[in-house]
Specification:
The chain has 459 residues and is α+β, with helices and mostly antiparallel strands. It is built from 14 helices and 14 strands. It folds into 3 domains: 72 residues, no CATH class; 249 residues, Nucleotidyltransferase, domain 5 (2-Layer Sandwich), CATH 3.30.420; 100 residues, Arc Repressor Mutant, subunit A (Orthogonal Bundle), CATH 1.10.10. The strands form 5 sheets. Strands 5-4-3-6-7 form a 5-stranded mixed sheet, with helices on both faces. The termini are far apart.
């Protein structure tokens, strides 16, 4: 309680004590004069009791009010702004949460991306002709404001492409990625594929996205996956960063853009949410535009915006990683623009590895030799248990090899997770290729170093 309130309580206490003394003296004189003295004594007693009770009640309610204020303040995290390369960055003080380091953030990003199920596309042999950009229907992106019904934003698909150049005419898509989300930004599945262009990939393009001619030489062209991609995005709102760039390439290369959905561009949303370095602001007093020193970011590139919101990853300029980063950016922009707090996203359950034989499936009964009917000696129950444990242990970190179609070894990794971090290829796609479910993953052949359980046991 403040000093001012304390002094007020003391003053009230003194006044009521003096009033009670005055009533007591008046009661004595009334008793001497045989008048109604009882009432004065009653007033004196009540005032004397009240002199102590009322200040105590005041102190109680003031203290309770202050405690409520303190609790309310503690529910919010005090933020300070610190200048950074990307503008200002929120620094959390006394926050009861663990703030991830950049490396931890990168690992979490990769882990979340690997947990998204991969939807295998069907390949089509239908001939699809290229089109002109001028024939593309007009696409208007939608803004997000406080009154926007966020539930109607879903389902949405975040799309990103990697191309051989900046102009749709004369260039091709060499990687496509799309990730489908439901509310509240819970990933449903991913669609990702390296694609073979009509010509070769220039060194300049490879220096940006890291995709080389060797990586795509055995991949299908974009036209082969157009029907699958069309089905995948059907009925979903479309999201992208600098979305019109991707849409122009998709349309020119043969994809019909849906007309009954909304399109959201995180580049446009960022321009309406964050102040760029070097921007001008209008001075109402002088009637002129002047430099705005209070900026948020240096530019509106995807990497700059991700850094501003603390979104870190290892494989920039790869379509699947860019698409997932764009989804996180969209979520942060919505929070900034509307104040909405989303509940945690729900990830699909991780698909189980191929079933490993259990102890019960390994026979402990002696087998008979077909030649003479004599039993063949087998390992006992303890030995079988040891074998199964070894197989489980090895399956969790099986070494995997990346090869070309001639089975020339390109790289070797300690695990699928290590391969994903180095190549950016979806983990389920690599696993399916290694298990023979599909031929390629990211344009490569994949094999486990020990290709069977028998090999594992013999090692």
């Amino acid at each position: 309680m403040s000093d001012k309130k304390t002094n007020g309580s003391i003053v009230l206490l003194v006044i009521m004590i003096f009033a009670s003394i005055a009533c007591l003296i008046k009661g004595v004189f009334s008793w001497i004069e045989s008048q109604h003295y009882k009432y004065w004594f009653l007033f004196a007693i009540l005032l004397f009791i009240g002199a102590f009770v009322v200040p105590i009640i005041m102190v109680f309610f003031d203290t309770k009010k202050e405690l409520c204020t303190i609790n309310k303040d503690n529910d919010s995290i005090e933020l300070k702004e610190e200048p950074t390369k990307g503008g200002t960055q929120a620094i959390i003080e006394d926050a009861p949460i663990h703030v991830l380091s950049i490396e931890e953030s990168k690992n979490r990003f990769a882990d979340e991306l690997n947990r998204i199920p991969f939807e295998k596309p069907d390949f089509s042999s239908d001939k699809i002709n290229r089109r002109l950009v001028s024939d593309m229907p007009e696409i208007n992106t939608t803004n997000i404001i406080k009154s926007t019904n966020i539930y109607k934003l879903f389902p949405l698909v975040v799309i990103d492409t990697e191309t051989t150049g900046l102009r749709p005419k004369g260039n091709d898509i060499i990687e496509i990625a799309a990730i489908k989300f439901e509310y509240p930004f819970s990933p449903v599945s991913s669609f990702s594929m390296l694609l073979k262009p009509r010509g070769s990939i220039s060194a300049d393009a490879s220096s940006v996205n890291g995709i080389t001619n060797d990586m795509v030489k055995d991949c299908p062209p974009f036209t082969a996956i157009v029907p699958s991609l069309s089905r995948y995005i059907d009925g979903c709102n479309i999201v992208g960063h600098n979305l019109l760039f991707d849409l122009k390439f998709l349309f020119v290369c043969g994809l019909d853009l849906p007309t009954n959905v909304k399109y959201y561009d995180t580049l446009d949303l960022a321009k309406k949410t964050l102040v760029k370095y070097g921007s001008k602001k209008y001075n109402h007093h002088s009637g002129e535009y002047e430099d705005n020193d209070d900026y948020d970011v240096f530019d509106y590139k995807l990497e700059t915006l991700c850094e501003h919101y603390g979104i870190y990853r290892n494989d920039q300029h790869r379509a699947l990683s860019d698409a997932y980063a764009t989804s996180k950016l969209l979520k942060d922009l919505i929070v900034d623009k509307t104040g909405i707090i989303f509940p945690p996203a729900i990830f699909p359950k991780i698909e189980e590895e191929p079933e490993i034989p259990t102890v019960s499936s390994i026979s402990t009964e002696p087998e008979e030799d077909s030649s003479n009917g004599e039993p063949i000696s087998t390992n006992n129950q303890q030995e079988n248990t040891r074998i199964v444990k070894n197989m489980k242990k090895r399956s969790n970190s099986r070494e995997i090899i990346q090869m070309d179609d001639d089975e020339n070894i390109i790289s070797q990794f300690d695990s699928i997770s290590a391969a994903v971090k180095q190549t950016g290829i979806n983990s389920k796609s690599i696993r399916d290729a290694a298990n023979g479910i599909q031929k390629h993953a990211g344009g490569y052949v994949w094999r486990y170093k020990h290709n069977s359980i028998t090999d594992n046991i013999e090692q």
